[in-house]
Design brief:
heterodimer, A: 418 residues, mainly alpha, Fumarate Reductase Iron-sulfur Protein, Chain B, domain 2, Rossmann fold, 3 domains, three-stranded parallel β-sheet, 23 helices, 53% helix, 6% strand, globular, B: 219 residues, Fumarate Reductase Cytochrome B subunit, 11 helices, 0% strand
């Protein structure tokens, strides 16, 4: 993909619809979004306020889609989008925003600012102003099949390990299985326990499932970098595999943006509804709970809290399910202040963790999470996103806090009755 | 131009021009927004767009606790001057007479002394908002010339209305003419500035709520 300013401007134009126009028309410059964004509250740098990050898109909307803007353009009065602007905005749009959407919940006129920034990324990427880390991850996702470069043999090796350890069979390419499980590279490489845990739970629940050897990767770098064409290719791989294996439901694993990509953006990217359902692993597990398929033995006595991954909770709508599940095995569950749909981002979602240039700032803004944790002093943190988990571990180490991180699926599997 | 001519111009042609620009401008702005359209969501719905959209139109008027704590001044000052504007514009007896003249509808007025108090409180709130805008780091960063122009256009009718009512400084016809003119300036600028948020926030909130509602989240 060759990038140019012209392509970037065209990509921005394509993003303008009635929502964009309504949002920009309504902004009153009140500044409240700044107070909702950890990249502002923890750095006090005004340029990092959310609505400012969408400035390139706003200029295109104003100059092309408003009467006053078009008249202004004729007289050279309407602000333009050029390479200098996009260069300056790159670190705001990619390094200082995780697309967590907290600003979208706070804006008094109701602007979905995170959506505006997500759309801005489409123009930034097309103009060649995406960070190298994300470009690399996206290239690997397209050519190798995984942003971390994980190939099928690596997955098969992990599956073999799990099979040896547990004596259970991990189903691969089983046609007609009820569920098809996707995995994030992070899970395959760093948390293979997730595969083991899922196998145990599904076995106890008595449902059929499979992993596809052709589309096992859940993450979608195209969504993070903002290239709809690539995001579409990655979604199509999953769709093809799910249709080939004739599964009823595709399961998105413990990864935030993967759920956003396949559940909410997926059908819109490929331009037609899916012939199967998509559910987050927590939704599936909660359905098992409702059906009485999960028998738990022994309770966790330590003080547990749950970190809501933004794309799963606030942007994804999976908020009650993790709490229902945690309450099955937790005796001492405490909520962080602002938990649930108003939770604060860990600071590394939306491609920030793939972008080395943002390493310093993501650890700086972790201060917000630290403050939240300090208020409740948990003994362990449960989450449902490998990316949150890795970054939370990083952040806790940076701030000398000794709190273990747990995966919800894995912790649930440990508490299954024999 | 004599003061009587001035008054009859702002009451007659001036008022008509302002109303035409206001109405045509608002229609153009809405058309600009709505004609862009929006793609149908093809993902399987988890909740209702309509329900979410309507709910957010209402609920977004009240910030959640932690947002209120972080943006206390903005929320309180904003509320005060908006309520003040509502009372002074719509519940002042002479204004209701004007509305009755123009649109044929009328409603009960609030005692003048109360409207007067609301006007003063709104002016104070707007002055405080201006100071806040000029001193706060985020606001200094985001503020444009338009923000100051709109601020001026908003406070002028309040100040000139207050002066006209109390006959301060000039003769009654001149004061009234200036007051009407200040409202006409506000009307003309309305569709082409952020003042338009008074109407478009309904759309913005609806879209925000609909997007979230579709995914089963209350926004």
């Amino acid at each position: 993909m060759s990038a140019s300013l012209e392509k970037g401007i065209n990509a921005l134009k394509e993003q303008v619809d009635s929502t964009v126009a309504a949002f920009f028309s309504s902004c009153i410059h009140c500044g409240m979004c700044a107070d909702a964004c950890l990249f502002y509250t923890e750095t006090n740098e005004p340029s990092r306020m959310p609505i400012n990050k969408a400035e390139p898109l706003r200029r295109i909307w104003k100059s092309e889609y408003t009467l006053l803007g078009r008249v202004g353009k004729m007289f050279g009065l309407t602000a333009k989008v050029d390479d200098a602007l996009l260069t300056e905005w790159e670190t705001l749009v990619y390094d200082s925003c995780t697309l967590c959407g907290r600003c979208s919940m706070v804006c008094p006129v109701g602007n979905d600012i995170a959506l505006l920034i997500r759309k801005t990324r489409e123009g930034m990427a097309a103009a060649g102003h995406a960070p190298d880390g994300l470009i690399g991850a996206t290239k690997r996702a397209v050519t190798i099949g995984s942003p971390m470069g994980v190939k099928l043999p690596a997955l098969m090796a992990q599956i073999n390990h799990v099979e040896k350890d547990t004596g259970m069979k991990i189903p691969v390419d089983v046609v007609g299985a009820e569920y098809m499980l996707l995995l994030s590279s992070m899970e395959i490489m760093n948390f293979p326990e997730f595969i083991e845990a899922t196998a145990k739970i599904f076995d106890k629940a008595g449902v059929t499932w499979t992993i596809s050897s052709e589309a096992f990767e859940a993450t979608n770098s195209g969504i993070q970098i903002g290239v709809a064409d690539i995001a579409k290719v990655l979604v199509q791989r999953v769709v093809d595999a799910a249709e080939k294996l004739k599964v009823q439901t595709v399961i998105s694993p413990e990864c935030g943006h993967a759920y956003m990509a396949i559940r909410w953006e997926g059908p819109n990217l490929i331009g037609k509804p899916f012939s199967f359902k998509v559910r987050h692993i927590l939704e599936v597990l909660d359905d098992f709970r409702k059906d009485g398929r999960l028998k738990i033995s022994g309770k966790e006595g330590q003080r547990l809290t749950y970190h809501d991954p933004c794309q799963i909770s606030r942007r994804g709508g999976v908020i009650d399910q993790p709490r229902n599940l945690i309450n099955m095995f937790a005796d001492n569950f405490v909520e962080m202040p602002d938990a649930g749909k108003m939770n604060w981002c860990c600071g590394a979602g939306g491609g920030v963790s793939s972008n080395e240039r943002a390493d310093e700032i993501r650890l700086k803004v972790f201060q917000r999470k630290k403050d939240q944790l300090d208020e409740i002093q948990p003994e362990a943190i449960i989450s449902a996103c490998s990316n949150c988990r890795i970054h939370l571990e990083d952040g806790l180490e940076e701030y000398h806090m000794d709190i273990p991180l747990m995966s919800l699926t894995e912790t649930l599997a440990e508490h299954l009755a024999d | 131009m004599s003061e009587v001519e001035f008054l009859s111009w702002v009451r007659g042609p001036g008022f008509q021009i302002a109303i035409v620009i206001f109405i045509a401008g608002v229609i153009i702005r809405f058309a600009e927004i709505l004609l862009l359209g929006r793609k149908t969501n093809l993902a399987e719905a988890k909740g209702s767009e309509m329900g979410g959209g309507l709910r957010t139109i209402v609920t977004r008027s009240i910030p959640d606790k932690s947002t209120f704590k972080r943006s206390t001044f903005t929320v309180i000052a904003g509320y005060i001057f908006h309520i003040g504007l509502f009372v002074t514009i719509f519940l002042f007896a002479p204004h209701i007479l004007l509305f009755k003249d123009v649109i044929g509808l009328s409603w009960p007025a609030v005692p003048t002394a109360i409207v007067d108090a609301f006007a003063v409180i709104s002016i104070i709130a707007l002055l405080a908002i201006l100071v806040h805008r000029m001193r706060d780091n985020v606001l200094k960063f985001i503020t444009t010339k338009e923000d100051y122009v709109v601020w001026l256009l908003t406070i002028l009718p309040l100040i000139t209305g207050y002066m006209a009512f109390h006959r301060i400084g000039m003769t009654a016809p001149t004061l009234l003419a200036i007051h009407i003119l200040s409202v006409e300036l506000l009307l003309v600028a309305f569709p082409f500035t952020k003042l338009m948020h008074a109407f478009t926030l309904v759309l913005a909130r609806w879209y925000n709520g609909a997007i979230s509602g579709y995914r089963g989240v209350e926004s």
